[in-house]
Amino acid sequence: MTTAVITNSLATRARQFWAAVKLGWAIESNWTDPFVFLTYQIIRPLFGTLILVVMYRVIRGATSDPMTFAQIFVGNAFFILVLQSILIIGLIVFEDRERYEMFRYIYLSPIGLGSYMLARGTSHIAATSASIILTLALGVFGFGVEMHLGWSELPYFLATLSLGVIATLAMGLILASATMLLAHHGQSAPEGVAGVLFLVSGVVFQVDILPGFVAEVGRWLPWTYWLEGTRHVLLGAPFNTSLAGMSDSAILMRLVLLTAAISVVAALCLRVAERIAVSRGKIDEKTDH
After folding, report:
1. Phi-psi region of 256 (alpha: psi -120 to 50; beta: other; left: phi over 0)
2. Given this model, what pLDDT does residue 47 score?
């Protein structure tokens, strides 16, 4: 009997989560045709990558190093997922509270705010994945980036990718928790945080060239190790000098610990923010005067 109850509860949760994922997809695509939406989702990051390619080729010119270019290209391609997902989850509060005025009903619904936000982020990650795949394909066939991923390396790649996604969703929840307590002008916070992560996580700059304190911050972020592990698998070479001596297993273990830590922080932040928002009437407060 207990097993049946647990199974039914999990099935109900799964249906609620899937419904929120589909709702997130519809909202992000503005209820347009899926093909049109995916085309837009793919083209926008591709042009952003092309800007980076032009900048690198112009600055480095004839002295450009193929491996350095490949490392920067791969880092930027996978960070598309982080950038887009953090922006979407971080702005959910403003969108549902100020624009659709549905935030109070989501709070009272069985799915709860946390699961709803995670579902919205999951739907966007699914759309962003196509951008990453095509960006990597452009690097291989358009710019000569040499990547390899053998069957033996696939489990490691999937593990690092999964942990990177979890860490990204957790950061999105932290930002959503903060914006729950902010007025409408606070909607620039997710974009600012995404920009900081782009700088200090070793996306296009080595963590080692950053000023001392900033470099230490970068070494305590899960995305630094996610991108480093991804580069190890796809390119066979380290990017950050200070992490060059770490084995793949050491990178994965550090990524596991940091992802677990940020996930716990996200859960605590959401719980505290919900209590404060309810007590101060911010669940249904309109702030876009």
Report:
1. alpha
2. 67
Residue 257 clears pLDDT 90, i.e. is over it: yes
In total, how many domains does the chain have?
Answer: 1
Beta-carbon neighbour count of residue 218 at 10 Å? Answer: 22
Give the model confidence (pLDDT) of 94-124 as tens digits.
Answer: 888 887 788 888 888 888 888 888 888 887 7
Would you say residue 85 lies in a domain?
Answer: yes
Is residue 289 in some structural domain? no
What backbone torsions phi and psi does residue 65 show, to the nearest 5 degrees?
A: -95, 120
Q: Is residue 52 part of a domain?
A: yes
Structural domain including 229 reads: 2-279
Contact assessment for residue 172 and residue 89, using Cβ atoms and an 8 Å cutoff: yes
Of 252, 80, 105, the C-alpha closest to 168 is 80
What is the pLDDT, as a whole number, of residue 262?
96
- CA trace torsion 153, 155, 159, 160 (10° rounding): 10
**Would you say the C-alpha torsion 170, 176, 179, 185 has a positive or negative sign?**
positive
The Cα-based distances of 169 to 83, 118, 225 in angstroms read 11, 7, 16
Mean pLDDT of 174-183: 86
Q: Look at residue 286 and tell me if it is in a domain.
A: no
Q: Under 8 Å CB-to-CB from 270, ≥6 apart: which residues?
A: 113, 114, 173, 174, 176, 177
**Contact, 229 vs 158, CB < 8 A?**
no
pTM of the model: 0.85
Residues 62-89: tens digit of each pLDDT: 556 788 888 888 998 899 888 888 888 8
> What SS3 state is found at 239?
coil
Q: Which residues contact 204 (CB under 8 A, 6 or more apart)?
A: 52, 72, 75, 76, 198
